[in-house]
Amino acid sequence: MYIKKGDKVQVLSGKDRGKQGVVLRALPAENKVVVEGVSVVKKAVKPNAANQQGGIVSQEAPIDASNVNLVCPECGKVTRVGHEKDGKNKLRVCKKCGHKF
After folding, report:
1. Can you say how many angstroms the Cα of residue 12 is from the centroid of all Cα atoms in its chain?
2. Does residue 30 lie in a domain region?
3. Would the CA dihedral through 50, 31, 64, 7 be positive or negative?
């Protein structure tokens, strides 16, 4: 999976199409990502030590990694990702501007 925690992505399909956000968690085993402010669901939570009151809370649900595309930090455009070898390291490269990240 080419998306990592902290990457800025744009949603390509679904109810939140066009929204941009930062990846909070990457779940490579399930090929899913959790994006800040995208796919927000309401969940009922019982009272516990961390949450004294309980009630209904909003939280982000995972979405499929194929439904998001990376936003290049250099040019700011939505782009596909290429790969380049730098010795033993494998770098991700923006297909539009060539920026390595």
Report:
1. 12
2. yes
3. positive
Cα separations in angstroms, 23 against 26, 72, 100: 7, 14, 19
For tokens 């494998």, the residue is 90
- Residue 3 belongs to a domain: no
Q: How far is CA 25 from the centre of its chain?
A: 7
Tens digits of pLDDT across the chain (101 residues)? 899 999 999 999 999 999 999 999 999 999 999 999 999 999 999 999 988 888 999 999 999 999 999 999 999 999 999 999 988 999 999 999 999 98
- The one-letter amino acid code at 77 reads K
DSSP letter at 25?
E
pTM of the model as a whole: 0.85
Domain count, the chain: 1
> Is residue 59 a part of any domain in this protein?
yes
What domain range is 40 assigned to?
8-75
Q: Residue 74 in contact with residue 92, Cβ under 8 Å?
A: no
